[in-house]
Amino acid sequence: MKALRKMRPQRGAQLESVGIPTLGPTDVLARVRAASICGTDLHIYGWDRWSASRIHPPLTFGHEFCGVVEKVGDEVTTIRSGDFVTAEMHVNCGHCRPCRMGQPHVCQNVKILGIDADGCFAEFVRIPARNVWKVDPAIPEHYAAIMDPLGNAVHTVLAGEIAGLNVLVTGAGPIGLMAIAVARAAGCATLFATEVNAHRRELAMKMGADEALDPSQGDVVQHVLDATDGAGVDVMLEMSGHPDAIHKGFQMLRPGGRASLLGIPKDPVMLDLVNDVIFKGATVQGIYGRRMFETWVQMTELLKHGRLNLEPLFKERMPLEKFDDAFSLLESGQAGKILFYPNGSAK
Ligand code: NAD
Ligand code: ZN
Question: How far is CA 84 from CA 32, 67, 141, 339, in A?
Fold first, then answer.
C-alpha cells in the first residue's frame, strides 16, 4: 500500500510503498477514507526539536482520519468489516496508576499511533479494537475525519461550567476555532477570541465569536475588562501555546474564574502565580487529549444533532501525493483543515 513516511531524521517526508499491516487478534484494519493534517504532523514534517526527541523513523505519520473497516482480528466482536469508523489514537496501557484510576487520557505509558507507531497517512491503518470509534451515520464524513482535534476542543470547553458565562479563547487555530463553535453550542454568553493572524480572526467570527481581537494592536486586556464591567471573563480557554497569549489571558480572567490550558508552549512559561492564580482564586487545569471515552460520547451527541457548524474550517482536499503542497500551505497559516484522500479522490 501507499504510505506517507518519515524516513530520515530531517525535514520532509516520502511517499513509500509498504506492506498492508498484519493484524493481531484484537486489532482492526481500516481502509482510510479521509485523513486530516494536524499541527503535530507539520512539526514532524519540518523536524523540529520536539520531533527529533520523540519520533523514530521510519514511521507512517498522521493520526486524524475516518475510514471503513476492512478486516478484524479473530477476537474482535464489537466491530465488523464495513463499519464506518474513526479512532482514539492515544493507546493507553490499562495498568498504570492513572489508567487504574479511570484517567486513561493521562496514561503514563501512552503510545500514540502516528507518533510512536504507524498512523493513518496511508491506504490502511491498524488500530486496537478498543480504540476504534464507530461513527454515527448522521455525522458527515469530513467531520468524522477531524474528531480527534474536535475532541480536544470539546474536552477543553466542557472541562468546567460554560453556559451563561463569558469566555475567552486565546488562539484561533483549528482547535481554537472548533472550541468557539463548541462553546457557542454549549450556551456561553459573550465570546472573545484573540488571534494574531487576520485570516483566522475572520474565521473566528464565522465560527461564532462576538469579537476577534488582535493582541498586537492596542490594549486587548483593557478592552475585555471594559467589555465585562471590569470583571474579566469567567472562562479562559488557552489554545495558542504562546506565552504572550497565556499572560494576557490570565490578566483577562476574572477572580474565581477557570483557565483551561490546551496550547503547548515550546519552552517553559513564567506565570505571575500570586496575582494571576493565587489572589484570584483561579482554577487552572491542564487539558490533554480527549477523555476516554466521555469526550467521544459528548462530541458524537453534538455532531449528530447538528449543533456544530464546522464548514468554515474546510477548504482544501488533496490526494496524498500532494503532501509537499499541503504542508507548505499549512505553514503559511492560510489553510483550514486539509484533508488527504489516500484511497482516491474526494469526489
Ligand atoms: P495552531 O498552531 O494552528 O494554532 C495556534 C494559534 O494561536 C495560531 O492561529 C496562532 O496564530 C495563534 N497565536 C499565536 N500567538 C498568539 C498570541 N500571542 N495571541 C493569540 N493567538 C496567538 O494550533 P492548533 O492545531 O489549533 O492547536 C492549538 C494548540 O493546542 C497548539 O499549541 C497545539 O500544540 C496544542 N495541542 C494540544 C493538545 C493537547 O492534548 N494538549 C492536542 C492538540 C494540540
Ligand atoms: Zn496507563
Answer: 10, 6, 9, 17
